[in-house]
């Protein structure tokens, strides 16, 4: 058969199964079973599929995934993360758009710790958003920052998705983790600057209200006690990778251990916390690894059937600027983000995208950082971004989808601005990885 017939089967079949509501992992598995039987034939094809599934998860480079997730679940279920937010709230005082800034910080923290941006949107949308509305905040300044905070989730290490992307793309996990630091920081600064400027120019968007001032001494003590230690764990993880002292796997294991030590020091490590943290980390890790098994075999089938080489050849021979190809790739990611979550998008696109990246001579670290930013932006892009519907489900009953769209659009625009900066100035991504030992 021609390669395009296989392509229609693989992507058409996968899309149809997803639209029917089949879980991503099982959709991949079903397409892989039929594809392996058709390409390799009979028992040989099924045996090859089993070997591919086994080899995809029997790799040392994926160990950081459950470790990073465990770090987050320990901090989350022990309450350390919530205490950090309380201390941050003390510092904000009467600054313009105070609760909106807090929403960005809290959402980024929870999404980073749990690895699930939509979970962060659901939690903050049901807790912080009602308080913001009660205080007279416009919905553009209450719903928008909560939605946008998910964009920071995978751009602030440690990031399990960065490990998955780099391992599938066959490039340095450590360099990608370090490379997303500056873009993530830049995105956070842009969000906060937008909120402060907008609320200063239009105070009615976020009416100021009296807050009990916290003494400077208490704020400093609380910061040293409740903020510096958890942040130090993240600094240790990224610092050891950056200095070449530890591999991402070793750094992730040390980070997970330090989180347990920290929870013990705060006297928050109960048996119930351990069960919840380990249980959550296990379920999330198993979900990711099951999807990974299907994706690895999917990539092999695309290659054996000739789909990947043919698409790579067609794209590289197009009479257009490489920038046009890059933009088309990002548009595809945004489109997929309307239907499936980020990990699944990586599984579907990386087998096709990485050969094109290599053929065009792009730096994979730079491309990976841009892709990660776009993966989060896709979930808040109207009209069908998944986080938008999560917000609709937990927002006030009179909230319309048009309200949510208007709240999300400015932050989508800010994401595009930061992405454009990353494209024009690759050093923002590549400078720190270039300094690594």
Key phrases:
mainly alpha; 78% helix; single chain; 21 helices; 437 residues
Helix and strand succession? HHHHHHHHHHHHHHHHHHHHH
Low-confidence stretches: none
Outline, from the CA principal axes?
globular
Q: State the share of residues found in helices, binned by percent.
A: over 70%
Strand content: under 5%
- What's the tally of helices? 21
Number of strands: 0
Average pLDDT for all residues: 84
State the separation between the terminal residues, measured CA to CA: 48 Å
Global Rg: 22 Å
Largest sheet: none
- Domains, number: 1
Structural class: mainly alpha
How is this fold's topology laid out?
Elements: H1 3-19, H2 24-39, H3 42-57, H4 64-77, H5 80-92, H6 98-114, H7 117-134, H8 139-149, H9 160-169, H10 173-179, H11 181-201, H12 216-243, H13 248-265, H14 271-304, H15 307-316, H16 322-336, H17 342-360, H18 364-379, H19 386-394, H20 401-424, H21 427-435
Helix pairs in contact: 1-2, 2-3, 2-14, 3-14, 4-6, 4-9, 4-13, 4-14, 5-6, 5-12, 6-7, 6-8, 6-11, 7-8, 7-19, 8-20, 9-10, 9-17, 9-18, 10-21, 11-20, 12-13, 14-17, 15-17, 16-17, 16-18, 17-18, 18-20, 19-20
């Amino acid at each position: 058969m021609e390669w395009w017939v296989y392509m229609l089967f693989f992507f058409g079949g996968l899309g149809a199964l997803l639209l029917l509501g089949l879980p991503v992992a099982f959709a991949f598995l079903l397409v892989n079973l039929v594809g392996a039987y058709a390409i390799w034939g009979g028992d040989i094809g099924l045996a090859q599929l089993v070997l591919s599934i086994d080899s995809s998860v029997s790799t040392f480079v994926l160990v950081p995934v459950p470790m990073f997730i465990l770090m987050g679940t320990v901090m989350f279920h022990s309450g350390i993360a919530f205490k950090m937010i309380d201390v941050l709230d003390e510092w904000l005082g009467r600054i313009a758009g105070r609760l909106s800034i807090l929403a960005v910080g809290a959402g980024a923290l929870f999404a980073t710790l749990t690895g699930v941006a939509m979970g962060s949107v659901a939690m903050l949308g049901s807790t912080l958003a009602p308080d913001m509305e009660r205080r007279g905040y416009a919905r553009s300044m209450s719903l928008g920052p909560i939605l946008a905070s998910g964009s920071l989730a995978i751009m602030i290490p440690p990031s399990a998705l960065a490990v998955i992307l780099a391992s599938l793309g066959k490039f340095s996990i450590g360099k990608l983790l370090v490379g997303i630091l500056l873009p993530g920081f830049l995105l956070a600064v842009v969000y906060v600057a937008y909120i402060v400027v907008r609320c200063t120019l239009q105070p009615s968007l976020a009416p100021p209200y009296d807050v009990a001032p916290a003494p400077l001494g208490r704020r400093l003590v609380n910061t040293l006690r409740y903020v510096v230690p958890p942040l130090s764990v993240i600094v240790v993880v990224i610092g050891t990778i950056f200095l070449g002292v530890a591999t991402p796997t070793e750094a992730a294991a040390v980070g997970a251990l330090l989180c347990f030590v920290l929870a013990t020091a705060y006297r928050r490590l109960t048996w119930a916390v351990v069960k919840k943290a380990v249980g959550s980390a296990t379920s999330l890790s198993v979900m990711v690894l099951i999807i990974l098994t299907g994706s690895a075999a999917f990539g092999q089938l695309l290659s054996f059937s000739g789909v990947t080489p043919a698409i790579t050849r067609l794209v590289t021979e197009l009479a257009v600027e490489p920038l046009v190809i890059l933009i088309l790739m990002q548009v595809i990611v945004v489109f997929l983000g309307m239907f499936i979550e980020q990990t699944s998008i990586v599984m579907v696109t990386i087998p096709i995208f990485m050969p094109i990246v290599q053929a065009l001579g792009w730096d994979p670290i730079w491309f990976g950082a841009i892709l990660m930013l776009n993966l989060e932006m896709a979930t808040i892009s109207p009209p069908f971004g998944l986080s938008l519907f999560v917000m609709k489900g937990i927002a006030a009953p009179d909230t319309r989808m048009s309200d949510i769209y208007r709240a999300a659009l400015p932050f989508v625009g800010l994401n595009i601005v930061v992405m454009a900066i990353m494209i024009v100035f690759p050093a923002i991504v590549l400078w720190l990885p270039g300094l690594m030992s």
